[in-house]
## 1
Amino acid sequence: MAPKIFLTGGTGYIGGSVLDALVKQHPEYNITVLLRSVPDNFISKYPSVKIVRGDFDNTALVADTAAEADIVIHNGNSKHEPSIKAHIDGLLRNSTPSSPRFLIRLGGTGAIADWADPSFYGEKNPKVWNDVQDIEELTSLPDTALHRNIEKIVQKAAVDHGDRLKCAIICSCGVYGPGKGPGRTQSQLVPVFYDEIINNTKRAFYTQSGGNTRSWVHIDDLVAVYMKLIEAAAAGGGKADWGLQGYYFTASQEVSLLDFATAVGRILKNHGIIETEEPAQLPLDDIWKMRLATKWRYMGIYAFACNTRTVSERARKILGYQPRAPNLFACLEEDVLAAAGRRA
Ligand SMILES: NC(=O)c1ccc[n+]([C@@H]2O[C@H](COP(=O)([O-])OP(=O)(O)OC[C@H]3O[C@@H](n4cnc5c(N)ncnc54)[C@H](OP(=O)(O)O)[C@@H]3O)[C@@H](O)[C@H]2O)c1
């Protein structure tokens, strides 16, 4: 029987792209989405998708809808605790060892970012996290790690109910490329860098040597990881790892901030948006003053001075994941122009 899927974040960049792929690749799936507002084109684009109107804070609704699903795919605000608990409560209602339910949750490599360690601000940290070799460390990160609150909830559920609740965390790195969903189609990091240049520095920028390095993945490759996991869940678990081992990085490449800034500076200069192509080397103090409106004092450091280096071994080994999309530099001009409001 076709699986019943409950997806959140369907108007978002990542969740929307997953929804679009699911509808196109698996028209037989029975899909329900949680939306707090319905985009104009949604019903005509996805006539077979059932809409439940609500917010993550409406936990009774989230739990009741999850209870009807075989597979929950939870995207959206990755730090929201009540909604993940509600999904788990709902999924546990009807699950049995002979008919387990599945929870696939979007996380982020903020979990392993070295923002708390000043020794590598603006410099390359030699530590590269591997989702197979480092799994014990990854499943016991300190409580101060980003996303840890949610990962602990998911991992506890996986340990307590692993016979009937199969959990996986897709721990995505920075994503690029145009999204395919009905709502947001831009990722986060390129617009944030663009915004800082236009409203503050007037030049692309880096700090220290600019060696701090981030892993990246194209949205189409990230969606490919999702699809493989969802298809495994639909087959009763398939060859995928679930539970504590169900932790998947998605990276296809890594790029230093200096290389990123150099490329962005060139694109902006070529399009007449800034005057100087060469990125500016800023003092760390300037980076500390960035993104303070987010209310997290490390946000500038996190966005522009720290490292998130990951290797996606598990998805390659277990799911046969092979990133195929063009690399970041091949897509950067389109993403920068989208951030500048010059892409349709
Ligand atoms: N993009 C990246 O590079 C990246 C990489 C790794 C991890 N992440 C993390 O993954 C998550 C999703 O990323 P994204 O780029 O897809 O973000 P996004 O485009 O902003 O999408 C967020 C989605 O979540 C929904 N949402 C948020 N709060 C909600 C609530 N309280 N109730 C119901 N729906 C809610 C939004 O609905 P509305 O349309 O109604 O607002 C939207 O559909 C974020 O937490 C992000 O930090 C992103």
## 2
Amino acid sequence: MIVFDLQCRDGGETFEAWFRSGAEFEEQRDAGLVQCPICSSANVDKAPMAPRVPRKDSDQPITRLAALQSRLLKDSRWVGDAFTDTARAMHSGEIETEQVHGNATLEQARSLLDDGVPVAPLPLRVTPPNQVN
Ligand SMILES: [Zn+2]
């Protein structure tokens, strides 16, 4: 799967949409199936910054960010939705401390920080291991 930042040519709104490939996006767009979620116009195209996939060109800022994140996560374990509980349990000493990453809502992250649990947002959205293509 690939996520594109799309832009409505009528209203100028930008939004994200997922496609199996760039070719599938073009097919669906040409068939008028890709619509602006704001005004339902089918006059949409890729926004200037699309697509958000790593490129060969290592000067792409997004590539450098992705490389940084993969270094951050190299020794980290994906815990998914159990992130908040896991972080709390480690903080209180119930389980052994290790580096983990996973999902937390803004509310959960705030409450962890309020309780002195050190958490930090990741620069890029993480694809859970069970959702990789
Ligand atoms: Zn629109």
## 3
Amino acid sequence: MPVRFGEPRLIKNRRNAKRIRTAVAVAVLFALTVFIFRRSDAAEGAGTAEAGKAVFEKNCVGCHGKNGEGLGPKSKLPNFKNPATMKSRSDKDVFDKITNGGKGTGMPAWGSLINEKDRWNLVAYIRSLSYRNK
Ligand code: HEC
């Protein structure tokens, strides 16, 4: 027998469907908001040098030297204070290098160890070193 319009079961199903749609919409909005805020939190170029300095001193000075100057002309380590070296690198280059490391060069990949925001802070700090020494 076909279901008549207005039959109680059908009305209940429709109400449920509406509830589910609302719940999905709320979930999507929530996910979007979180996504947007996370993005702006770790946006390219949004790092601060002061915050980066602390992360650098904790993780990087062992190899890159106290002031990021490397270990002299004969070492393979870049001199972050040399504007000529750093001019050819975009912020994204520096960020990617920190994230992925050097693959066999001795430069570790920090992607899983240092969060995205702090990696941008490191970029800002490294930038500040060569700008200051122009
Ligand atoms: C175990 C030693 C070691 C540590 C620790 C280390 N690095 Fe490096 N890093 C290297 C070496 C070696 C190179 C040069 C070879 C290369 O570019 O892969 C390098 C290169 C780089 C470069 C590329 C510079 C260019 O020439 O463009 C960046 C940027 C960098 N390191 C940032 C960092 C930051 C930030 C940290 C701390 C979170 C860090 N490194 C910690 C060894 C290290």
## 4
Amino acid sequence: MRKWQLGLVTALLLLPLAFSITPASAKTTTTTTAAKTAKTVKQTTPKKHYLIVMGHGAGDPGARGNGTTEAHFLRQYMLPQLRKYAKEVTHSTITFYNPKRNLVSDTLYHHQGSYNINKHTTVIMFHLDAPAGHGGHVIIHKKHPTARDKRLAKVIKKYVGLNRAYNGYSFRTNLRNCNVLRRRGIDYSLVESGFITNKRDVTHLKKHMAKIAKADIEAITNEQLK
Ligand SMILES: [Zn+2]
């Protein structure tokens, strides 16, 4: 290494140091600096992460009814609206599971995607029910509904109605898509938004989709959106 190169390397090494010193030395008594510091501290606390999974997909159409499939309906009507409101959330982070992939096969056979979900992530799955009935419910992770489960059930009740068989919640341990998460201690809620086979449920879902999506995002994160 030549002398001028050494000089350059030294200068480059000192560069970040110079930058890191500047804000510290500039930290005077001004209130704006104090506010900035507080903001920085706040940002270092990791935000709660939610992963939204639109049921089925990757060759699995799910339930059928009213001329559509569960996978298609959820992705075509619900996913774009959920994405829109997820962007407005500021206290949490929301990501969406690749709609071309299937959570169960990814976990059990391919060992990718959901297989790599962080234990601090909460998974929210959206589905439509079949073969016959009316209304939705929330399939819960623990024996009793969490505050989040209760908020999600309220959304269903308001826009579609609750399935009378469950009165809001159902605790299941025999569902594969839940068990791939349960076995690894990952928190989840599975929302059965209504019956795909019920014309009234589908009509209500389509009609109120934007409001439902907004309310669902608020229910998941417990954050009020404008
Ligand atoms: Zn389903």
